Amino acid sequence: MTERALSFDAVADQYDEARPGYPPALFDAVEELTGRPLKGSRVIDVGAGTGIATRLLRARGALVTAVEPGPGMAARLHRAAPDVPLVRAVGDALPLADGCADLVTYAQSWHWTDPARSVPEALRVLRPGGALALWWNISDGDVPWIAAQDERVRHWAGDVHHGAHSATGRARYLPAAMDRAERRITWTRRVTLDTHLANLGSHSVFRTRGEQAAADFLANERTELLTHFPDGTVEEAYAVELTVTVRA
């Protein structure tokens, strides 16, 4: 898991340029479920990567500290947002003070943690009444071409852990006693075929299979997708799955 998590480091620029962001409705839902506006809130964004969610949280007025273990990802985040405090660490051992945060967020990253360690750490750094928010962009498998692509990737990789679908299944391991609220927010974005393939190729399963194998698959995928999107513009469809739990 550590190898796969750090595999993104080599493609930090590609990751930042091609990965999708998050719709405003996600942050509306975070505010609703936590009962607190993001503006002025002290937020710890863990597994921040290149800062895609970090920058959007800041745009809502949050006072964000980013936590990211990968040197390449952290460097890209620092270039894009040099005034954001940045801590090199993992969610399983946060070098932060008790009760220092109103909100701890994990965007696409909770599944890289050990919940037996990351849950107590999140609760420790949250003030009483603070909240832990976990979310993922999930490719919408109800869209036929997306379901077909996911199946091709699974067949090629022989990897049952590919994709955010399996990630969220593992990631929702929270203690049964913890109350949580959930939201599902659908959205789409239109991107060039090159951007779509760069997004796909930035996922860990491609980073750990070797460059040539990945390049061959993506070349075949380009040919396949041109039958669906002959003008070279792809409409990606997502559902953001959000889980929020509030510290008593």
UniProtKB/TrEMBL annotation:
Which UniProt keywords are present, listed alphabetically?
A: Methyltransferase, Transferase
- What is this protein's name? Class I SAM-dependent methyltransferase
Instruction: Tell me what organism the protein belongs to.
Output: Streptomyces scopuliridis
